[in-house]
Amino acid sequence: MNKEDIDYSLYLVTDRRNKTTEEFLKIIEESIQGGVTVVQLREKDTPTKEFYQIAIKLKEITQKYKIPLIINDRIDIALAIECEGVHLGQDDMPAEIARKILGKDKLIGVSAHNIEEAKKAVLDGADYIGSGAVFPTSTKNDASDVPIEKLKDITNSINIPTVAIGGIKSENIKQLENTNISGISVVSAIMESENPIKASEKLKSIYNSIEL
Amino acid sequence: MNKEDIDYSLYLVTDRRNKTTEEFLKIIEESIQGGVTVVQLREKDTPTKEFYQIAIKLKEITQKYKIPLIINDRIDIALAIECEGVHLGQDDMPAEIARKILGKDKLIGVSAHNIEEAKKAVLDGADYIGSGAVFPTSTKNDASDVPIEKLKDITNSINIPTVAIGGIKSENIKQLENTNISGISVVSAIMESENPIKASEKLKSIYNSIEL
Fold it and tell me: Would you call A91 and B48 a contact, using CB atoms and an 8 Å cutoff?
């Protein structure tokens, strides 16, 4: 993986709730077939061994399609499965410590809700930031709001890619025009869709049609 | 730290509940002054950043007294603070993967509740096992029971140190005579004591007086 070549355009954050492992893995595989370019495995309150086991299975799929697999929060899991990187929230491991542990080749993403957090992420060695929630969302209640104007301020303040996240769906992607983002990140728009292939295709097609 | 020289005789597992950070750190320091030889930081449901921050503070104390600090479950925290090792339950990272990540010099302990788990831990590269609950306990409800006879069978089946855990207090240490253990591990007997120095001194004195 060359970090500079990563395509962030359709970045899926997983949500395994209310799904069997088989159903979960099928959604991920179909979403990649539909156009997802990065997968972030996000688990909360999952015991380490179970987290490791689901991550190993997910990596088989992302490897098959040659797309990056990112682990939310847990550097130990990323090291254990030797995947492409981690994504760190503001309550997770400080990015500068994560960089020391992971070395320069691993991908580190950081959630940033304002210019200060975004600039600090760059200084700490982040490769990209995730910023949001850009729209109202029910998936992640602790996300600070980042309205479109604020998102523009953030992307304009840093020189690494920004992925917009939070409540993004086909109907509102157009509002992200001219925000200088490098991709959109979704959870429920794919995880809760009846047809993950079509849902991903539609999201990607609309994203590709807007001015960035 | 030379792994072969570690003194497991009085092994404290922390419980930070209902304590301020200051109170918590004071108990740990006093317990070491009273005779604790190993400290395991055990957190559950603590966000990574907070876990990291408390671990950094705890390491300052264990370094001052030159005793090993072990992190329960989280290899990422152990790497971040560069402490002596990790302790892994059966639902945590498989020990063989932990060994790959941590290298040969770090200490890895594994919880084992029967001969099979104990032997597997040895094969996976564990340096010691923790076995219990040897007595009834309220701290860790998911612990399987390891009565004295079973504990003997376990210690006799492996060639690495065994630390007995679970409900151990001054009053019942004598029941652990002739079990071939290398130490006793306590939580509440120290964490909930009114005088951690005296509590530790008493536990250690009784432990040192029994035949092993």
Answer: yes
- Tell me what ipTM this predicted complex has: 0.94
So what's the pLDDT on residue A137? Answer: 80
For residue range A35-71, list pLDDT tens digits in order. Answer: 999 999 999 899 999 999 999 999 999 999 999 999 9
pTM for this one?
0.95
Residues 6+ apart with CB under 8 A from B174: B206, B210
Helices (H), B82-133: 95-102, 115-124
What is the pLDDT at residue B136? 87
Q: What angle is formed at CA B122 by the lines to CA B119 and CA B127, rounded to 5 degrees?
A: 140
- Six token digits for residue A35: 């156009």
**A74 vs B: CB within 8 A:** yes
- Per residue in A90-129, is it b (16+ CB within 10 Å) or e — as a string? bebbbbebbbebbeeebbbbbbbbeeebbebbbebbbbbb
- A48 contacts A76 by C-beta, under 8 angstroms: yes
CA-based nearest distance B127→chain A, Å = 20
| Rounded CA separation B120/B122 (Å) | 5
Question: Quick check: B75 contacting A, CB < 8 Å?
Answer: yes
Cα separation, A178 vs A118, whole angstroms: 19
Structural Rg of chain B based on CA atoms = 16
CB-based contact, B97 to chain A, within 8 Å: yes
State both tokens at B207. Answer: 């432990």
Residues 6+ apart with CB under 8 A from B147: B134
SS (H, E, C) B22-38: HHHHHHHHHHHHHCCCE
Q: Could you read off the pLDDT of B123-157 as tens digits, one per residue? A: 999 999 999 999 988 655 555 589 999 999 999 99
* Location of structure tokens 């370019």: A37
Is residue B129 within 8 A of residue B112, CB to CB? The reply is yes
CA distance A107 to A105: 7
Q: Which residue has the tokens 């987290």?
A: A51
- Give the model's pLDDT for residue A142: 53
Minimal Cα distance from B91: which residue of A?
A: A49
Write the DSSP string, A150-197. HHHHHHHH-SS-EEEESS--GGGGGGGTTS--SEEEESHHHHT-S-HH
Q: What integer is the mean pLDDT of A153-182?
A: 97
